[in-house]
Amino acid sequence: MASASIPEKDQLAVALAEGLASIASASSSDDLRALMSALAGKKGAIAGVKASLGKVTDIEARKELGQAVNEALTTLQDAADARSRDLRTSEFATQIQADRVDMTELAMSANASRRRGRMHLVTQATERLEDVFVGLGFQIAEGPEVETDFYNFEALNMPPSHPARSMWDTLFIESDEPGSVVLRTHTSPVQIRVMQEWPPPIYAVMPGRVFRKETPDATHMPVFHQIEGLVIDRGITFADLAGTIESFTKAFFGEGFTSRLRPSYFPFTEPSAEFDIRRPDGSWIELGGCGMVHPHVLRAGGLDPEEWSGFAFGFGIDRMAKERHGVNDIRDMYSDDIRFTEQFS
Amino acid sequence: MKILLSILREMADIPADPEVVAVALTSLGLAVEEMDIVGTPVPGVVTARINRMEKHPDAAKVTRCFVDAGDGEERHVWCGATNMQPGDVVPLATLGTKMPNGMDIARRGILGIDSEGMLCSEVELGLSDESSGLLILPKDSPLGVSPFDVLGIEHDVVFDLDLTRNRADCWGHLGVARDLAAHFGVELKGPRIDVGALGSEKSLPVVVDAEKNCASFTISYVSGIAVGPSPRWVAARLAHLGMRSINNVVDASNLVMLETNQPNHAYDAAVVSSFRVRLATAGEKLTTLDGQERSLDAEDLLICNGADNSAVGLAGVMGDQHSEITDATTTLAVESAWFSPDPIRYSAIRHGLRSEASVRFERGTDPNAWELAAERFVTILRETCPTATLHAGASIVRTSHCPQPIPVDVSVNAIERKLGIRIEVERIVSILNAIGFSANAQGDTVSCVVPTWRPDCSESVDIIEEVARHFGYDNIGKTIPNSTVHGRLSNMQLRRRTLRRVLVGLGLDEAMPSPFLAPGDLADVGLSEDDVLVLANPLVADESILRTSLRPGLLRSLRYNQSHRAPRVGLWEIGHVYPKSDAQLPNESEQLAIVVAGGDAETALSQWNAICDALSVGAQLDQGRVPAGLHATRSATLARGKKIIGVVGEIDPVVLDGLGIEGRVSILELDLTTLLNEEPKPVQARDINRFPSSDIDLAFVLPESVPATNLQRALRQAAGKCLVSIELFDVYRGKGVAVDSRSVAFRLRLQEDGGTLTDAILADVQKACVAAAEKAGATIRA
């Protein structure tokens, strides 16, 4: 082949060499992009060689030159791609450096520190208790906080003037019939309402606010919260009560905790018991009261004691919250003081 | 209720270890609140006589005492007390003594002069909670011996029992001893009785007029009395049980009550030799033992001197001052009665006079305990008066109201059904007999008789409880019921929880202010007080009404935080309000209120929008109805037709000024009874419309008098079924827009169901929108 003599081929070599040199020295992606459209574009040196292909008369030589032009273009493009990658890498590196923020500063700034609000400790405790009882197969019942004497006392086996009524320091509402409307002293009236309204079997817990005529101090509030449990079914026994208390103890406090019942007295249950929780370290928490629903109470709830039996239990929610978080003075829990509230995420 | 181990152990041979007894008491339902070991001698403390006393010129507050402890050596002791004199015998804690409070008695010097021990008070010896100086012992006490021996102080254990309301019988040691004897399987001996030979028959005349109130009245006649001090053990036991020693007669009477639970009263039989029990006449006067003259009620029961019908005691509560025993008394009429519990309770309440007797009568005493009480009384008296004689022929009046033993049957099966464990019939019978419920079995049925000292028991369930108690709750076992009920939260409860989480997500803290308000609190926030409930017996006047709105409480909490350097708090409460209704109970409902210090109407609206979104609820904003107490131009009612479900906006600045709250305060109040009980149906999915959508932006000039929602509604209707969404994206007031108007710009996204929107359709929609907007009072911005 006598191709060496074609001047276009030399021109191509020069153009390629110059192109590669300028690609290598391109200083930014933008420069490179402009450079490439100049080098490979219609007005570029290689395009000039390509345009002169027609003037090469020797077919072999033309074919050879055409091939060389294509190769040159490919070489240029490859070089540009490689250079582009390098440039992007360093450009990102520069940008990332320029982006630098102080994350600890941002964490402290207003937008990032926009905090979630707090639920009241009593609400948190109530929800945790509800969840455990739902897990044990209980539903949740609610009732009014202002109650009639019937629901708060009479239906609970405390007829008018029953001496056990003095177990609760009651707040009364002024009414035409003095003493007939009270602020419920316990959540037990909800038991009666549930018995009247829900068809048995009943497995329910009843959390809620209760009221006593008590001067506030570090461990007492006139307004506080209890949760009451009621089970009504066929063939319910005292052993079922003890077993349910035990299940609750393990589910709520943990596997290492156990429970015991000891005799006590409530007008609305018989046999009655106090239930205590034994911590793994052997110490006891006196938690609440419980017992087999008294036949008089079943009747007041519209149930036949020959067919249905049941048990009930109840305890204070505030104390659970107080002990869980080591609150020294229960009044702080009801102060709505943000300095107190904020502590509990 | 205080119970002494020494007395229990006289009545039954129970273990001596107080810990063992305490565990047994608690397991029987007689909860031990406190256990105090009393009268423990302190080794190293001896009696010593003060020979002489000196003041040191440089130590004004202490005295130098030179004491003789009987060992021939004069000791020098510094003493800070002032109640002693030379010649007094006092307790001396010698060097090396460890005091009950842990203090070691060592040589200690003042002004370089060492003290060789310490002179002690009752407190320092652990004998009392308070004292006013050294314990001064009898002058003839031997020296160098334990002052505990000198005083005859018994080592004893006091159990403080937290008795339940039902266990009337345990207000006497005998009831407690009976339970313990049954528990430990030992015989109940009861108190020691030794009355010697009975005296001649002597029955004092007794008339009972009030048969219902006084169902049993007995008078025992006792002669050969000499009033004097009690034996030391009697005084000591009374002191441990919280009573003061008076004289041998009164002390015996009190100790008998504490032992047997039978309140009793000893009259001087020379002064009162016949009795009448009658109701008082209204306004009748009686001066009780405490020196107070009391004006009586027609329901008060009186013990009267039969001779002149004058009152000698408020029955069951307190004796009268004038019939007290005197030093001259030689014969006694000892009264033991059974009074109906409720009237005694009311009398005690009426006169503000709860005595040791009244607390027992109001719980219910044993009408058959009088004889034991009389015998025990004389037994104790005979220690100081060997001639004391109980006479035969006590006067006994019983009325038809006197409690009787109650026969009750209970089956073994019934016990098993209640307890969940089968207890053998023999065991049941033996438990019941051990506690005096004389029982026998016929096949499966146990028949027993409730003794008269157990007024709390009358039906089979009471018997089952007694069996369970003595069988041991711990022995019953633990089972789980076979429930067919599934645990779950109701729709309303789930929605309430969602709401709580939305609220904390908004950065708001839950508050729980008191639901009690002071009169005027509601008016202070611009609300009516017409429908409030009033407490009949409030703790304090400032908490005498029940809230009808959560607002006053939350605003108070907000102000509290502002005044404690937390100016921008956001608080919420979900709680009940209690407006009065025509029915017996109020219209109690659950409400939500949110207040944000520094928040404005937009704050409240964005909270409302978040809640709407989370609970799938909505309501119309009606700015035409300004809610009471809210900002007149920055508030709206949330309505659904005629029903108002809440208010939103800002608190009236006048209210805030009155309360002393700085800055704006946003408010959102919602009636949750409505919102949480709704159960929105699950949204049904639509296929994604994959045809291209187009946006058109339209800006209008809208007068301030026209609510933006009117314009939006008009545009929504005009855009028709092609409208996917409509969004207010710009509001502008100022240059280029007329005064009292604003520019509002909406972006409408349009899309067709079956194909691509054509320019023609877009043009039509735009035209329709502009026309509708003009009808609504807006003009398109050029």
Count of β-strands of chain A = 9
Number of domains of chain A: 2
Number of strands of chain B: 38
| Structural class estimated from helices and strands of chain A | alpha+beta
Describe the global form of chain A. rod-shaped
How far apart the termini of chain A lie comes to: 87 Å
**CATH class categorisation of the largest domain in chain A:** Alpha Beta
**Structural classification of chain B:** alpha+beta
What is the H level of CATH, i.e. the homologous superfamily of the largest domain in chain B?
Answer: Phenylalanyl-trna Synthetase, Chain B, domain 3
* Helical stretch tally of chain A: 13
Query: What is the gyration radius of chain A calculated from CA atoms?
Result: 43 Å
Instruction: Note poorly predicted spans of chain B.
Output: none
CATH H-level superfamily of the largest domain in chain A: Bira Bifunctional Protein, Domain 2
Number of domains of chain B: 6
CATH architecture of the largest domain in chain A: 2-Layer Sandwich
Largest sheet of chain B: 7 strands, mixed
Quote the distance from N terminus to C terminus of chain B. Answer: 92 Å
Spans of chain A of at least 5 consecutive residues whose pLDDT stays below 50 are none
